[in-house]
């Protein structure tokens, strides 16, 4: 069938017996020899290949338990390279000892060093409805969401030890009328958002078909080599004792299943649910996109901390949730629902907070005690938990972004086209070579946290248009990644784009309209810079590695600091045309004083002059001083 880029999709079996599909230049391993039925049919399907996940996601039902019949089993095919499913739940065989031994050792280490507080936290998120647990990622908006959606839970604390029986979430008896578990009630101010979350977590989103397919046991039933060894004894609760170094949290001992043949570990169902709910909330409330992604990773990590799941289980749950969310959001049947949910969330939160679409983002990040306030810490946690113990092997391979994946960024980067959002996903993706991430279509390689920060590379020239009148991210956004590549950037539209990375793109930068903010010394990459309209603003001392040209009705806005070098250093020539304006701001912490001459612009060659030099001061004015090294200003009292 046609690929997302209009290419034909082909399939073949490589020399190791794995089915591989090719989308253009990239290829991903789909299945292992364990899937005999699938491989037998591979040659017959080679001419067309399997359907794209987003077109086949409704095949994920219990009656379909092969990669040929089930799209989820297909995208999780990387697991079949490390684990061969047996005839029974306890007869599977290790194919990749390095990966699965590291997997079990990690689980043993983390559960044996777990604190009591961590055990209680693991219980809380094991028993609490996953959609409710994810609300915490909304930060300052979380309380407003719970009240607006009438979302409640009965699991608010953990027992000190092992409870007497199984515990399940329920609507508390004293909850307000109409309250509901999970994402909340459809009959509420945020009912459409709640419905979107439930739709993403709908009838085709279960991990059970894949659990039955792979039959990889829970970690507490396995030893270091992923072998199930029943000691023949039972613990004080009547459960069989296995030869395992993984210790289940005491609070969860009675929550374990007593039927191991129906209780596989891979993929983690809780992890799947956390990420499904998190990405649905992120679509409706993109102002908290990265924080919701981080929380999904954090809550998923408690599955390992609890002893109930292993690292490969959690990775599998995330992969399937990413694909399932994209498929549900891309489904035309849900187009009206997702748009209504976004509109409802925006209207509700701006009303309740007294903000506008332009100021809601700031409010959503205004709490200093927000558990996810540290963006860099969030990024580190997400990156580490994307691969856990998996070693990286093989050559660097490009990613062909899975069909439909761009919908995941539809509200976070609304000013980009679908093709541009696909390019963002491609250029921010995790590297190839991680066995579970390199399955069919490579959904596991998508790094949504990084993608929310814009492009990772300009491999071709990029033109971006932001519209201040449209509000929200249309009006202003920040790209925080370190951008590389041979292409360049052209900024259009009345909105504001902020570049914060240490960028290394070579194709140059053009500002035609609106405002482009250089928030780091290397924000503008390695090429020439041309300003023909709008404003180029530097929030830091700025370096232009090529030439700098300014012409037309345009403004260069620079920051002046006391006892500092030039605000702008240009490696090659500077050409200033008619209509160009220089606007200077005094640094709030180290402002230069009257009577001093402050270097502004340094370059080997400067031709032309600014039509006007402005200074944001009521007591000082700036007098231009042209020198052989460029331009300085002398500050004099008005």
Automatic annotation (TrEMBL):
Cross-referenced InterPro entries: Autotrns_rpt, PAP2/HPO, PAP2/HPO_sf, Pectin_lyase_fold/virulence, TAT_signal
Transmembrane feature ranges: none
Molecular function as annotated in GO: peptidase activity
Keyword Cell membrane among record annotations: no
Superkingdom: Bacteria
A Pfam family: PATR
Enzyme class, first EC level, given as a word: hydrolase
Any one GO biological process: proteolysis
Signal peptide: 1-36
SUPFAM superfamilies on file: Acid phosphatase/Vanadium-dependent haloperoxidase, Pectin lyase-like
Listed PROSITE patterns: TAT
Enzyme Commission number(s): 3.4.21.-
Annotated keywords: Hydrolase, Protease, Signal
Residue ranges of domain Phosphatidic acid phosphatase type 2/haloperoxidase in the record: 192-329
NCBIfam families documented for this protein: autotrns_rpt
Protein's UniProt name: Extracellular serine protease
Organism (species): Streptomyces chartreusis NRRL 3882
């Amino acid at each position: 069938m046609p690929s997302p880029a209009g290419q034909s999709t082909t399939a073949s079996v490589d020399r190791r017996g794995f089915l591989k599909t090719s989308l253009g230049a990239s290829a991903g391993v789909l299945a292992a020899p364990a899937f005999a039925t699938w491989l037998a049919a591979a040659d017959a399907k080679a001419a067309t290949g399997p359907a794209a996940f987003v077109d086949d996601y409704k095949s994920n039902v219990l009656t379909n338990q092969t990669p040929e019949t089930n799209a989820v089993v297909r995208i999780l095919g990387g697991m079949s390279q490390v684990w061969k499913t047996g005839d029974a739940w306890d007869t599977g065989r290790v194919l990749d000892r390095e990966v699965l031994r590291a997997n079990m050792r990690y689980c043993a280490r983390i559960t044996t060093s777990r604190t009591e507080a961590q055990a209680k936290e693991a219980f809380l998120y094991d028993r609490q409805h996953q959609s409710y647990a994810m609300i915490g990622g909304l930060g300052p908006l979380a309380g407003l969401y719970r009240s607006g959606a009438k979302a409640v839970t009965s699991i608010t604390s953990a027992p000190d030890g092992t409870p007497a029986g199984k515990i399940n979430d329920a609507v508390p008896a004293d909850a307000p009328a109409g309250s509901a578990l999970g994402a909340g009630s459809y009959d509420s101010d945020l009912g459409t958002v709640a419905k979107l979350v439930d739709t993403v977590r709908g009838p085709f989103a279960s991990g059970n078909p894949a659990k039955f397919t792979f039959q990889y046991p829970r970690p507490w039933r396995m030893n270091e080599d992923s072998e199930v060894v029943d000691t023949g004894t039972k613990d004080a609760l009547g459960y069989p004792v296995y030869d395992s170094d993984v210790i289940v949290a005491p609070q969860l001992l009675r929550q374990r299943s007593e039927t191991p043949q129906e209780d596989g570990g891979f993929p983690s169902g809780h992890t799947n649910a956390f990420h499904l709910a998190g990405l649905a909330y992120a679509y409706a409330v993109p102002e908290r996109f990265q924080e919701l992604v981080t929380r999904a990773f954090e809550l998923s990590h408690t599955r390992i901390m609890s002893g109930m799941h292993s690292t490969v289980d959690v990775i599998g749950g995330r992969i399937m949730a990413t694909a399932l969310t994209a498929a549900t959001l891309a489904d035309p049947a849900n187009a009206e629902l997702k748009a209504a949910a976004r509109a409802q969330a925006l209207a509700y939160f701006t009303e309740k907070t007294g903000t506008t679409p332009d100021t809601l983002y700031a409010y959503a990040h205004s709490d200093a005690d927000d558990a996810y306030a540290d963006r860099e810490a969030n990024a580190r946690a997400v990156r580490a938990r994307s691969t856990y113990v998996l070693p990286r092997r093989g050559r660097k391979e490009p990613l062909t972004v899975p069909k439909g994946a761009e919908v995941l960024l539809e509200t976070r980067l609304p000013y980009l086209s679908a093709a541009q959002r696909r390019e963002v996903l491609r250029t921010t993706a995790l590297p190839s070579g991680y066995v579970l991430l390199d399955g069919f279509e490579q959904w596991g390689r998508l790094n949504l946290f990084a993608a929310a920060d814009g492009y990772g590379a300009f491999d071709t020239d990029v033109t971006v248009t932001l519209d201040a009148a449209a509000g929200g991210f249309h009006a202003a956004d920040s790209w925080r990644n370190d951008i590389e590549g041979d292409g360049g950037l052209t900024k259009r539209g009345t909105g504001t784009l902020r570049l914060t990375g240490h960028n290394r793109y070579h194709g140059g930068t053009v500002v035609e309209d609106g405002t482009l903010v250089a928030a780091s010394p290397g924000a503008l990459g390695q090429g020439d810079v041309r300003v023909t309209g709008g404003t180029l603003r530097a929030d830091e001392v700025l370096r232009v590695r090529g030439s700098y040209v300014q012409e037309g009705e345009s403004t260069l806005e620079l920051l002046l600091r006391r006892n500092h070098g030039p605000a702008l250093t240009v490696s090659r020539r500077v050409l200033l045309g008619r209509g160009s304006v220089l606007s200077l701001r005094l640094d709030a912490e180290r402002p230069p004083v009257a009577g001093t001459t402050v270097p502004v612009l340094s370059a080997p060659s400067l031709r032309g002059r600014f039509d006007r030099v402005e200074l944001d001061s009521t007591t000082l004015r700036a007098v231009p001083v042209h020198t052989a090294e460029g331009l300085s200003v002398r500050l004099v009292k008005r």
